[in-house]
Amino acid sequence: ATPVFKTLYEDTIVKGWVVVTGAATPAIADDVNVSSIVDDGVGLFTVNWATAFSSVNYAISGSGKRGDAGTHQCFVELRAVASNPAVGSVQIRTGDLVGTATDMEIWSIMAIGNN
C-alpha cells in the first residue's frame, strides 16, 4: 500500500542520534536531540532525549567498537528495563559478542519515531 505522505517523510526521519567516545569516561562526541548520557555501570548507559518522543514506540539501532587488543566485534542493544524505551530516554547495553557487558571505546545509536 502507498503510505500516507506524512508517514513516508516525517515519521521515518531519524529524530535523534549520538556518538559516544571514551571507555573509562564516556562523553558525547556529537549528537542530534540528545541532552545528556548517563553511565549506569559497565556497559550500561541511559541516553536522554532533548525533545521527548510522543510514544514509547520508536526504533533504536546502534553499533560500537572496542579499543583493546581483543575482539573488536561488539553489540549495542536496547536494555529491556521495562520492555520499551521511555519517551524521554532509552537505556542501552554494550558488550562483546559472547554477551559480556563491556564499555566500548566508541558507540552510537539512532532513533526513529514520532516526536
Brief write-up:
By secondary structure, this protein is mainly β. The chain has one helix spanning 5-9; strands at 14-21, 27-32, 34-41, 44-49, 59-65, 74-78, 89-96, 106-112.
Name the quaternary structure.
Answer: single chain
- What's the tally of helices? 1
Number of strands: 8
Which overall shape is indicated by the principal axes computed on the Cα atoms?
Answer: elongated
Based on secondary structure, the structural category is mainly beta
Radius of gyration: 15 Å
Biggest β-sheet description: 4 strands, antiparallel
How far the N terminus sits from the C terminus, by CA atoms, comes to 24 Å
What's the arrangement of strands in the largest beta sheet? Answer: 2-1-8-5
Query: How are helices and strands ordered from N to C?
Result: HEEEEEEEE
Give a description of the structure.
The protein has 115 residues and is mainly β. The protein has one helix at residues 5-9, and strands spanning 14-21, 27-32, 34-41, 44-49, 59-65, 74-78, 89-96, 106-112. The chain has a four-stranded antiparallel sheet with strand order 2-1-8-5, with no helix packed on it. It is elongated and about 45 Å long. The model has no long low-confidence stretch (mean pLDDT 82).
